Amino acid sequence: MSIPAMLSANDINVVEGTVQDVEGNTYRTVQIGEQVWLAENLRSTEFQDGSKIKTAFIPDDDEQNLLKYGRLYDWHDVTDERNICPVGWRVASDEDWKELEKTIGIPEAEVNKKGWRGDNDIAITIKESQPDTLFKKFDQSQVNKYKFFASAAGVKLSRWYITQGMYTEFWTSSNATDKDAYNRTLAYSWWNPHKGEIRRTTISKNYMFSVRCIKN
């Protein structure tokens, strides 16, 4: 790992570095509070043992989207015991996400709720960008404050790619039911009133979403 550069954001230490996966892909990393996260979406096509991941699709099957958006995985690959993350890392759980959300300012009373949560446009602090719209202006000094670089990769369902540029959906490793698991959603589209919030919900494990890993 490279020597990190120390930044400060509202008294939260934000420490940047890098890590490689088993294929040699290099990722930015960021420490936010006590957690160390990938600061970009996972791009791996192999588990830690070198076996191939069944999903791992590039949005729109366009190689030009790989570095910007990473790959999209179904939940079965996300939770496979062979581990899709770099060695020493894991797919972030629902609890990991809740800790991040509390660190960046979502009240303790809200983190366990389902649906859109967070006030004061808290979500823009982890988004790579958030343009102003006709209906709302954002404090651009707060955009990507925590160097998380979330971007609107969209999702894949069966053969179709949808919502690119409008939403990013992150899987968590946390199971909900036989068919559903927990995820996180960020909204980007001009017409969506929840662009400043983070959604916690459960959804079919057959969707293919972006993945963020967290250091063990």
Describe the protein:
A hairpin with a 5-residue loop joins strand 2 and strand 3 (26-32). Helices cover 11% and strands 31% of the residues. It has one domain. The chain has helices spanning 66-69, 75-78, 94-104, 108-111, and strands at 5-9, 12-20, 26-32, 35-38, 73-74, 89-91, 115-117, 155-157, 160-162, 167-175, 180-187, 198-204, 208-209, 213-215. The longest helix has 11 residues, at 94-104. 40% of the residues are buried. Strands 1-2-3-4 form a four-stranded antiparallel β-sheet. Strands 7-12-11-10 form a four-stranded antiparallel β-sheet, with helices on one face. It is mainly beta and 216 residues long. It contains four helices and 14 strands.
